[in-house]
Known about the structure:
- By secondary structure, the protein is mostly helical.
- The protein has two domains: about 1-455, no CATH class; about 460-540, no CATH class.
- Helix content is about 85%, strand content about 0%.
- The protein contains 20 helices and no strands.
Amino acid sequence: MARKNNLVKNASILMIAIIVARVIGLLYRRPLGQILGTVGLGYYGYASNLYTILLLISSFSIPTALSKIISEKMAKGEYRNSQKIFKGALLYAVIIGGIFALIAFFGGRILLPGNQANAIPALKVLAPTIFLSAVLGVLRGYFQAHKNMTPTSVSQVIEQIFNAIVSIAAALILIKTLAPEGGTGRAVWGAVGGTMGTGAGVLFGLLFMWYVYGVNRKTISRIVARDVNGTEDSYTDIFKLILIVVTPIIITSFINNASTYLDAYLYSALQGRAGIDSDVISAAYGEYSNYYIPLINIPLALAAASVAAMMPEVSSSYAVQRMEDANNSVGTTIRLTMFVCLPSTVGLTVLSSPIMKILFPASTDLSAKLLLTGSLYVVFAALSTITSGVLQAIGRQKEAMINAGISLGINLVFQTLVLLAVPKLDIYSVMISNILFSVVLCVVNDLSLKKHLGFRNELRLTYAMPLLASAVMAAAAAGIYYGLHILTKQVFLPLVIAILAGVIVYLVMYAVFTRIPENQLRTFPMGSKMVKILKFLHVYQ
């Protein structure tokens, strides 16, 4: 029970921090979208997508891989080796991060679609951020391996705060000074300013993590001094271990997220081939990547937080063959994630139009329709993220990579055929392809987990009851919103009331349908507050 509570506590810390960070990231896109316009958002989106792919290859998987390696060493009492792995990972990050920063800076004309060359300046600005992110990833993975999620959580909030401030300020300044007449120049320089915020956020997050490491250096030295294992690996062995573990995880993460980049590339190329103007393509993709994607990424970020908290728990349990503990950790992680993702999916669907109107006034009906039809992606993407993380945690990195490759292949074939056959489907083809990718990945990953871990999904409490509670919540929220909207002709106040009422209805229905004990609910994110609400409503006595 103590191990389970520790997992939920760590996941809760990361979830709360990610919610705050994502909300900040979501809110700043409203003024940024108004400043850049949909075409500028398109350039920003294309540059950001390619940056994300290069980041995935160079550094995104470092926290996951490092957390796995160090937690396994610490489970065996090899504290000195865990510290050497940290130092080796720093050198790895500097080299790999530097290489891919140069690729981003000089390779835009090759890597971006030919009709999206205006995104190249924004990509050049993002290039140094790849190097900084690689080092930041090592520090985050190091503390996650020690099951201390607080530094990572705080650094993510700091990163988003500076990202938001600098993105808006830089975009405004560059547009006023370098493109005062508007036109394409406004969109190009606005996108450049927006990407400056990304670099500023990562820089300040990195400075904070180095400060935390410095504060904890004496404690770290005392832990290393307790090493009585007697076995010390050479740096040659450590670099081999890092490469063996990191490489499959990097490739898997790349494939998992390459669908976003490749879908965008195919969409732009095939729509251009169909004779559609490049600015029209950029505008549609701008709404997709900067309005629809950030919204659905909020609940998805919680899945990533769960994986970060789960990885050291599952890795350490599996390393010493505590299979029941490993399975319990996986089950707890999925249940906690579905507790958030299922109502998020349903809520985003039924309130898609007012949500888009309030958050992004510059958006068109396209964004609301994407959210209405594409929110289902949240559930399957969350599950595929968790199950891929489990396979990596138990040493099945190659299998996770193969599963992701199968899903990507099906995704790309589907989108290519759809766009060639039905070009009028437009940006919806990208959305449908992403959903298909996550569904296929869920299925093949689930088969792998049954084979290697003996894991079986618990259906009633994890999926069925939360979904039923979400359905009741949806009916209540939609009824309240549209009823108040008809009466008041307003959007904001009815939406706020509907969301608050929906949260309370879901919480009550979840407690009633699952019969979750009060002490167990307290371990959830903000569990104590949820228990107080339920006691006030006499659900708990």
